[in-house]
Every structure is written in C-alpha cells, then in structure tokens.
Target: FAD-dependent oxidoreductase
Amino acid sequence: MVGQGLAGTLIAHFLLEAGQAVHLIDDNYPRAATKVAAGIINPVTGRRYVKSWRIDDLIPKAQQTYRELEQKLNIQIYHPRPVLRALFNNREVNDWQARAFDPAYQAYMVPGDEVNIGRYAEHTVPAFDYGELREGAQVEIGTLAEHYRQWLINAGLLTEAAFDFSQLQLLDQGVEYRGIRARVVVFCEGAKSKANPYFSYLPYEGNKGEALITSIPEAGFERILKHRIFVVPLADGRYWIGSTSNNFHTDDLPSEKSRQYLTEKLDELLRLPYRTEEHRAAIRPTIKDRRPLLGTHPEHPQLVIFNGLGTKGASLGPYWAQHLADVLTRGVPIDPGVDIGRFGLNPSK
Model:
C-alpha cells in the first residue's frame, strides 16, 4: 500500500482484520490532510440542511471502527459531540424547523426551540437563532494515523520513504516493489494522486484548507459550533478553528490571507481572550462529484485506488475502507457510486 493517511490507515486495518498481509510505504508528509483536518462528523450539511450522502450507513460504521481502533491502540480519538448550527434569519429558522420535523431527519436534527447552547451563550456573540444536530462527532484522525503508524513500524509493516514509481514492476500475477511482492498495490495518496502515472487521469480537484489551533482556556466549550467558521473542541482548552476553502491554490503552505480571515471571524464571534498556537494548511483530496474513488485500474487489475475522502473523510473512511477490503478479499462487487469507472474515462487517452 502507498500512503498512510486516514484512507491508508483504515484500509490496512480492515485488510489485516481479514487475515491479509500488508506493507505500507509512506513518507510522513507534514502537511498531509489527515494531519491538518479536524475530523468532524456532521450528519446534516449545506444551506438546505440535507443529510450527508449515505450518512445512515456511515455513522454506525464509523462509531464501531473508531472504537475498535481505540482499543487496539489504547488511545481515545472518537468524541461524540452535538453540532450547534447558527441560524441567521427567519428563513433559515423556518427551513430548519421544517426539516427537523421530517421523519427522515428526526434522528439528527433538534428543533430550534429545544436547543440550549450552553457556555456559547455567555462567551460568543449570539446568532439570530440556533439548531442542533445529534450524532455529530470529532475524530482525532491525525492522532489515529500517528499511533497506527507506530504500531505498523513496530510490527515491521511500514517503510518510511517516498514511493518511487520507476521501481514498481507489474507482474502477471501481482506487483513487485524493491523486493516486496504483493497481489495488489493500493494507492491511498490523497492529493498526491494527481502525480500518480496510473491514476492521474481521474477528475481530481483538490481543495486547499487552512485552520488555526487556538488556546481558549476559559471557554469550556463541549459542542462543535458552526457559525461562519467551525469551533471544534480539542483537549486541554484548545480548539480547531476553520476552515478556509480554496480551489485555486498554487501551494499547500499556510497563507497570511487565510490566517487573517480566520482571526477576523474568531474575533467577531468570541467574547474571550485566546492565543493562536498553530496555523495549519493542507490540500484536501476532493473529487468532481464529492464521492470517494475506489476501484481497480481498467488496464492493470493489480493496481487499486482508495482516495477522494475530501472534507468528510472521518465519516466516509470507515464504511468505504471496509467495502474495499470486502471487494479485495471476498469478491464483493464494487458499489457503482464510488467505482472509478463511473466517470467513463480512459487512462490511455
């Protein structure tokens, strides 16, 4: 396998659980999306308050998988947190209320008149009104990847190096790379897949996001707040503040413009002093249709891809990693909604 971000970590976990032998190659890139993202699980998104795609399937699998990995690694990374959603006018309130009473949404949405915003009431500038989402969570995906990496190293299952495509040999019954033979190689490279000579034909977009890690020791916030920006509780009075979205980036470095934007939004919102500790940036592996990329290369079946988790990787990752593991080990047909063949593209053209 190539890449040990969230996608690589999860597919390795499920393949090992299925009794398969794995070996990962990863260069531990410091600005990988997994290291920067907050790991938010948000069941209802967008201006129209629509359930995230396949969320009824995704959330139970995410809860189960992250709990299993917590036990395996002796860490705590899965934090159930309701999501407070700021509403800014009567129309938004009415739309929220209407959706909250839809039977298909009642498991997730709390009507506005039942919401108590807790400590946000005294420590932030109030919005017009608020809604609340159940089944939200924050997953420390960077911590997960870091600890899983050390577990892999201790087991002799990870090589820390950049992958050299010139050393990859395609065999009749598999692949060989610097003495390692395998039935398939799974590419989980995130935004770097644009440079993969076998899968660069796929419609990657790549979205640059930036976030601040702040210390707000007096806040005591326990829920995730969406109020123009996200305020996401971490540990020890620290909060993830983000994020920006840039489809026209030229690098993956933190920018002063984004720092200023996030700082201004936080200043407008917060009634407490805070200190910015870090400014992070990464390229999210986003895809044209906002769906993951899974499947085998149309000309080289020993080459497999798992990518495109984008902005919702914490919720998408476990379900689709399990699915790909089932495809590879049990011959389960790949779901057409994530199959790379859905684009009808030819890598030879």
Observations:
- Residues 261 and 325 are 41 Å apart (CA to CA).
- The chain has a mean pLDDT of 96.
- The two ends are 26 Å apart (CA to CA).
- The chain is about 30% helix and 25% strand.
